[in-house]
């Protein structure tokens, strides 16, 4: 009964979404307040019914209702409760439901926090979001119903893919979807602006916190996914340039360009049509990612069960959403041209340069991801594009991005003089190159990549410090504390996020240059020396889990004579699918991880043990955390709330 | 409407054209010109004993699989349990063609290695991988420079060739073998060939 209720709630959500898509837009077009006012309650209703439907599917997992096909395919009575719950989004149908739920959550958030925006504008935003919801709910009901019954019901379920039975998997998809779907808000704001023809500084100011919030979620989601790959997949890599990773990375790149472009549009009124195009692009790439993952067009380790009918539906949806919005763009954007002019040497130019570079990187990633498809379609053969292509493109394009990223804040808006600006940053720049060279020599790994990486990281850190010092000198009379207090949260956000990029580069460079890996055969009581550490193999015991059998090794880790601790990597067999899994064990440190995974047992009783030494790898994620924190600070800046309040009377007048 | 503002739309429509075409393709399906032709002859060093060599003629009279693999190949790990299971059932002998073990790994600069160093490294890595993940192969041979791979038209690893009693290639499977593709495609074809032979 409950699955049927869930199904029915989904149908109702679709009907409400249709109302939300049509009525407010009509109201905005005819300037009828009553029709526009339908948007908010419809958004809430759609959220409640989608949420109810989601709860029903979760319930089916909790009570092991194997008469629901989706549950029988992805759960098992022995699966721990927490993984039965996360199994809801463990595969195609349920993850779509999560997508729809996330979208309705963002929609409600917009409905609630938009009291001070003009009614007609809110109506257009909610209407646009409504159309996206219609597409996704219809997609689910037509091709991918998670509530389909299995008659007769299965006695036992097949269990969730063991790779997904991990704490990282509990929050990785929700965070990622909050990011992907969050760009739908920026997209809807852009469409509403194109529809009204109103695309000014106020519009940019409204869009900014929403876009930054979505970007924060996406950053955290991607970082978590890469962390999960690192410790769960068992061979110590953290990024593979897999099509599905690229699918999340492309919207991130364009989203990064978008938040910067919005800053220029707000401050200077410039780049307006470019900003709108980026907003459309970031969300389009999110949708494209969904298409690539679920249509079977590309092969990937992440691929969901594929079905051409689904592919066709999403493609039609892509054409409708992206095609219509680009048509609208072509029609309306020419009227938006203009905005403040600026000189070649200015912060505006630096931001524009980085925007263009980030878009080019995004396009190159798209090209690499789809290249096999292009060649195949043109009858030129089949091939796969691997990490060497992406690295060859990514490093040279991102190097100027990082240099400009730190130079831009030293320039004034509108126009500045080149030579004084260069003189300001020259000491830091030269010092960075020296530090890059010096550190590479000190760690004994002089390759152009190591030197470049370390020099860039040093440049980010030094320029950040100089920027902070410059900022603090601005008000000479005040005390240090009051000078710190007057710096707005948005500035700290920018500073922290940029610093995060530097920390990230340190991690990537050090791991890439100095990581070490050793596969050894070990018997109980044997020692092995590895990268300055000693590991003592204490043997293997059985360690049965709820839905798996495991062999757990005990390895004592020593640095010199100091016992650092015991590492317990496991080799598991998940019983329902008879799938072997490697659970690595890590000694996580500030400056290095020691990573151990357990291989097969050999005939003579010894085990293959795979050892990895990963210098500075936590810095990769620490950098991402700083970027996300920066984003949070920027989105939470008081300015948005204060200006919103000040704007209230004007908006009320407009609404009336 | 100015033309330049239509550029994004035009690019998008081109992309849609490719995607629509992509829906009709199976990225795992590649026609091989070798189908129903004699498999290219080779003689390569064996992984278990480098002093011995192995060639096609040793398998004459048998239906067998030639599985292309490497320790750096991510998808091979996905496929491997299926092969181990297949070996346990003893339906068909599987010969491993270890493909560019050292040169194929982007992390290693193979140009700096002397030939004997490359061989030693390949043997160590390949054996380590097999002992870590299980060895489903009757034997494996080392295609260090990938020449035999080129003769067979290997696009990516893993790939699997089904070869009949007379040494002709009868089927090529691209990408990892899944339990489903094994049961539905490979095993029926193997049975058919065995009956015919």
Automatic annotation (TrEMBL), chain B:
Pfam annotation, one family:
Redoxin
Q: What is its main location?
A: other
Lineage: superkingdom: Bacteria
PROSITE patterns with a match to the protein in the record: THIOREDOXIN_1, THIOREDOXIN_2
Subcellular location field: Cell envelope
Thioredoxin domain residues: 33-195
InterPro entries, sorted = Periplasmic_diS_OxRdtase_DsbE (IPR004799), Redoxin (IPR013740), Thioredoxin-like_sf (IPR036249), Thioredoxin_CS (IPR017937), Thioredoxin_domain (IPR013766), Thioredoxin_ResA/DsbE_sf (IPR050553)
Task: Name the keywords, alphabetized.
Answer: Cytochrome c-type biogenesis, Disulfide bond, Redox-active center
Single Gene Ontology MF annotation: disulfide oxidoreductase activity
Q: Name one GO biological process term.
A: cytochrome complex assembly
Q: Tell me its family.
A: Belongs to the thioredoxin family. DsbE subfamily.
What name does the UniProt record give this protein?
Cytochrome c biogenesis protein CcmG/thiol:disulfide interchange protein DsbE
Species of origin: Azoarcus indigens
């Amino acid at each position: 009964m409950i699955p049927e209720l869930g199904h029915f709630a989904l149908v109702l959500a679709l009907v409400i979404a249709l109302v939300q898509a049509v009525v407010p837009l009509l109201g905005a077009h005819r300037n009828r307040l009553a029709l526009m006012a339908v948007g908010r309650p419809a958004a809430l209703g759609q959220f409640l019914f989608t949420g109810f439907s989601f709860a029903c599917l979760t319930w089916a997992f909790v009570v092991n209702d194997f008469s629901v096909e989706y549950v029988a395919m992805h759960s098992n009575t022995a699966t721990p409760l927490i993984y039965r719950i996360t199994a809801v989004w463990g595969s195609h149908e349920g993850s779509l439901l999560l997508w729809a739920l996330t979208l309705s959550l963002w929609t409600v958030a917009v409905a609630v926090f938009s009291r001070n925006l003009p009614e007609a504008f809110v109506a257009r935003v909610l209407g646009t979001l409504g159309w996206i919801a219609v597409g996704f709910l219809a997609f689910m009901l037509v091709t991918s119903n998670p509530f389909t019954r299995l008659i007769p019901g299965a006695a036992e379920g097949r269990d969730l893919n063991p790779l997904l039975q991990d704490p990282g998997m509990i929050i990785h998809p929700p965070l990622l979807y909050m990011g992907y779907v969050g760009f739908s808000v920026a997209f809807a704001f852009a469409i509403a602006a194109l529809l009204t023809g109103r695309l000014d500084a106020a519009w940019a100011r409204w869009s900014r916190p929403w876009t930054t919030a979505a970007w924060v979620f996406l950053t955290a989601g991607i970082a978590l996914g890469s962390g999960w790959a690192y410790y769960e997949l068992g061979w110590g890599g953290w990024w593979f340039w897999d099509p599905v990773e690229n699918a999340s990375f492309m919207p991130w790149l364009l989203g990064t360009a978008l938040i910067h472009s919005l800053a220029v549009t707000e401050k200077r009124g410039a780049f307006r049509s470019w900003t709108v195009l980026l907003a459309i692009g970031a969300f389009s790439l999110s949708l494209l990612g969904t298409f690539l993952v679920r249509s079977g067009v590309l092969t990937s380790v992440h691929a969901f069960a594929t079905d051409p009918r689904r592919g066709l539906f999403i493609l039609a949806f892509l054409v409708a959403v992206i095609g219509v919005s680009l048509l609208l763009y072509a029609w309306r954007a020419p009227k938006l041209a203009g905005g403040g002019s600026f000189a070649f040497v200015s912060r505006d130019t630096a931001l524009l340069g980085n925007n263009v570079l980030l878009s080019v990187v995004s396009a190159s990633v798209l090209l690499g991801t789809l290249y096999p498809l292009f060649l195949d379609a043109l009858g030129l053969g089949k091939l796969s594009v691997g990490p060497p292509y992406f690295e060859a493109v990514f490093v040279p394009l991102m190097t100027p991005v990082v240099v400009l990223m730190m130079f831009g804040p030293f320039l004034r808006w509108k126009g500045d003089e080149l030579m004084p600006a260069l003189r300001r940053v020259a000491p830091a720049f030269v010092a960075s190159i020296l530090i890059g060279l010096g550190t590479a020599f000190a760690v004994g790994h002089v390759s152009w990549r190591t030197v470049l990486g370390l020099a860039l990281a040093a440049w980010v850190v030094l320029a950040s410090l100089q920027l902070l010092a410059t900022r603090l000198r601005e008000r000479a009379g005040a005390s240090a504390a009051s000078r710190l207090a007057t710096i707005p949260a948005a500035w700290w956000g920018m500073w922290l996020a940029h610093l995060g990029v530097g920390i990230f580069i340190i991690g990537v460079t050090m791991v890439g240059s100095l990581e070490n890996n050793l596969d050894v055969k070990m018997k109980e009581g044997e020692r092995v020396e590895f990268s300055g550490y000693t590991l003592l193999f204490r043997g293997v015991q059985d360690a049965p889990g709820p839905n798996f059998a495991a062999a757990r090794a005990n390895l004592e880790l020593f640095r010199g004579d100091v016992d650092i601790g015991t590492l317990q990597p496991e080799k598991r067999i998940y019983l329902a699918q008879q799938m072997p899994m490697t659970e690595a064990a890590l000694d996580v440190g500030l400056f290095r991880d020691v990573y151990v995974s357990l291989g097969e047992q050999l005939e003579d009783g010894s085990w293959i043990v795979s050892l990895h030494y990963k210098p500075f790898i936590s810095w990769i994620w620490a950098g991402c955390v700083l970027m996300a924190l920066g984003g949070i600070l920027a989105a939470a800046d008081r300015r948005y709330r204060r200006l919103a309040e000040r704007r209230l009377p004007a908006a009320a007048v407009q609404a009336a | 409407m100015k033309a330049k503002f239509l550029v994004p739309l035009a690019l998008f429509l081109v992309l849609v054209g490719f995607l629509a075409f992509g829906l009709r393709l199976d990225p795992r399906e590649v026609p091989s010109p070798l189908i129903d032709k004699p498999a290219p002859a080779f003689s390569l060093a064996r992984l278990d004993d480098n002093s011995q060599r192995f060639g096609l003629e040793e398998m004459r009279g048998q239906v067998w699989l030639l599985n292309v693999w490497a320790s750096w190949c991510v998808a091979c790990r996905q496929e491997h349990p299926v092969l181990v299971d297949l070996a346990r059932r003893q339906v068909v002998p599987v010969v491993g063609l270890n493909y560019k073990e050292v040169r194929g790994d982007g992390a290693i600069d193979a140009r700096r290695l002397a030939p004997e160093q490359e061989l030693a490294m390949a043997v160590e890595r390949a054996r380590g991988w097999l002992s870590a993940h299980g060895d489903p192969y009757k034997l494996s041979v080392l295609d260090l420079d990938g020449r035999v791979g080129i003769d067979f038209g290997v696009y990516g690893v893993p790939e699997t060739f089904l070869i009949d009693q007379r040494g002709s290639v009868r089927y090529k499977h691209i990408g990892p073998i899944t339990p489903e593709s094994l049961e539905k495609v490979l095993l029926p074809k193997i049975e058919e060939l065995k009956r015919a032979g």
